[in-house]
Amino acid sequence: MKKRAVIVIDLQNEYLPSGKLPLSGIEAASANAAKVIADARSKGFPVVHVRHEFANSEAPVFVPGTNGVEIQPTVAPHGDEPIIVKNHINAFRGTDLKQQLEARGVEEVVVVGAMSHMCVDAGVRAAADMGYGVTVLHDACATLDLEFGGVTVPAAQVHATMMAAFAFGYATVKSTGEYLAA
């Protein structure tokens, strides 16, 4: 079996209903992510946490030093689990995420987190491009409604589109239940 790691992308307080950028279904996604994290810990798989912060305090969200940038308590790191702080959408850009995975001999990653259409998307595609086998747990990820050209796209459709794109060419997409049962 290939060495696996769970990458938890941006499950931060900013995305909760009390945050500045609440996501549709974030609490259910975080609860599922917590199950995946617990499973990984019980099996000795590495868990790597990614936390988004903007480089300056003038950003409208993810302001350094605020409660919004903190990782949600339900998925908080334990022990020596690494926390990768990123300033860009892609968790690999400008960070040591790849080096952290290499140091642990990781060959495949399981991705959970937020937002499906942004940071999860960038991380999944980058991991696949780097040669990692990638699994995305669709019900452990969340996003929000988007708007373009006067058309509002509901979060469920944004999310389904991203998962379909992953499944088409970048990742295996499963539910948390399917993953944990395997």
TrEMBL record:
Q: What is this protein called?
A: Cysteine hydrolase
Q: Name one GO molecular function term.
A: hydrolase activity
Q: In terms of domain of life, where is this protein from?
A: Bacteria
Q: Which UniProt keywords apply?
A: Hydrolase, Plasmid
The species this protein belongs to is: Aquabacterium olei
Task: Pinpoint the Isochorismatase-like domain residues.
Answer: 5-147
